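Whiteboard transcription, Tuesday session. T.W. wrote the structure tokens on the left side:
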């Protein structure tokens, strides 16, 4: 599941910053997001996700930060590789043990 990133990190940061700066000029967060999303050419839902992710990363909203999520992802990948290597070693050990018995 590989998403293509249509928007660069700079555009994302700028859009989030615009929402935060202009939030008070709109009756709700959603109104601000809709207005700015039209200006940058993304969907309002996408921009709202960016804003929420930024709030979590800044610590103003509860949730798992991007850095923590990436760390967990990296650790899960490492565990998967180690389990695979362990399985290979078990199979090799059994193979060589059987070869010793066959002698």
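and on the right, the sequence the group agreed on:
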């Amino acid at each position: 599941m590989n998403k293509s990133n249509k928007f660069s990190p700079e555009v994302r940061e700028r859009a989030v910053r615009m929402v935060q700066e202009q939030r008070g000029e709109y009756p709700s967060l959603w109104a601000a997001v809709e207005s700015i999303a039209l200006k940058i050419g993304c969907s309002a839902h996408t921009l709202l996700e960016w804003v929420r992710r930024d709030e979590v990363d800044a610590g103003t909203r509860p949730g798992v930060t991007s850095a923590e999520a990436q760390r967990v992802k990296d650790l899960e990948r490492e565990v998967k590789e180690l389990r695979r290597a362990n399985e290979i070693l078990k199979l090799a050990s059994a193979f060589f043990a059987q070869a010793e018995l066959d002698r």
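Someone added at the bottom: DSSP finds four helices and no strands in the chain.
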